[in-house]
Amino acid sequence: MDSLEKARKKIDTIDQQMxxxxxxxxxxxxxxxxxxxxxxxxxxxxxxxxxxxxxxxAYIQNxxxxxxxxxxxxxxxxxxxxxxxxxLNHDKVGYQGTEGAFSHIALRHLFKDEEIKAxxxxxxxxxxxxxxxxxxxxxxxxxxxxxxxxxxxxLLLKYDCFIQQMYDxxxxxxxxxxxxxxxxxxxxVYSHHQALSQCQxxxxxxxxxxxxxxxTALAAKFVSEQKDNSKAAIASKExxxxxxxxxxxxxxxxxxxxxxxxxxxxxxxNPSCGDRFSLxxxxxxTVGQLAKVMQLIGDYGFNVESIKSxxxxxxxxxxxxxxxxxxxxxxxxxxxxxxxxQKVCKELKVLGAxxxxxxxx
Length: 361
Known about the structure:
This protein has helices at about 5-40, 45-55, 65-90, 100-110, 120-130, 150-160, 195-200, 200-205, 215-225, 235-245, 290-300, 330-345, and strands at about 90-95, 115-120, 135-145, 145-150, 160-170, 175, 190, 210, 230-235, 245-250, 260-265, 275-280, 305-310, 320-325, 345-355, 355-360. The chain is α/β, with parallel strands linked by helices and about 350 residues long.
């Protein structure tokens, strides 16, 4: 056995020992996390981290290795914090908006008892999932009348988050006003731009000033606080109850089949457990590359239920694609498909497997 093989064999033995010690360390971290939960202590303890780093670095006898070991220990402690966050926040679910928003309503259908956290933007929810502040996020993905929420596709591309589940919520928009107001009093209508689009026919038949708002629930909250009979919001009946508004006109959306599809995002992709899976991919900007992808999917016997394109922000006039495919991602054909797509696609992200639940209420 030559010197290289001897060194590699020694590294393999050390790695095995390190793996066992890492497991022991993480088990101890689990106990620390449980104590912090019980005593409501923060995850970050800066003084403790500094002391651990100083103490461990003192064990190093070979000066050239010291900086590398310091980096190693900082990474180990960062992993420990991430794991603690996962344990402490495993039952927290986030959404964009405020109480009464359709995202909040969808979340409550999907998660009955979990702790809820609201965020100002979709990106805030993605960042919270990626940072383990919450276990899952509930995000509007597409509306049957107004189409996709393009920003969400961009965020799925940008962040290390994956689709765990899809949920279809029947959307009934309503005109909400202050107690005592009538439709004749209304001059301004506030709501999210998608809700306004969903009710375009009703709005065009009335002489209202239409004013976009960050979301439907915030619009209702604003109208409630103004106590002005000339102002109204478009939102759900649940939102009316929360903010003490009256329903002036029910079901004003243009399409009576108005449905919003929500996605549940998490930090890990589901490799199975679903009858559909989604892909994000890019191809070289040359003739026939997209056709090759579609041909491969067809050759393996899968049906593309939906395909969408979005511009790549860093590359003018180039695009990435989202494909929703009917099939089991754990199936041998799906595994082979993904392997072959990796050869054809410039970039490929498997967003995970999922089912689509429906709510018709």
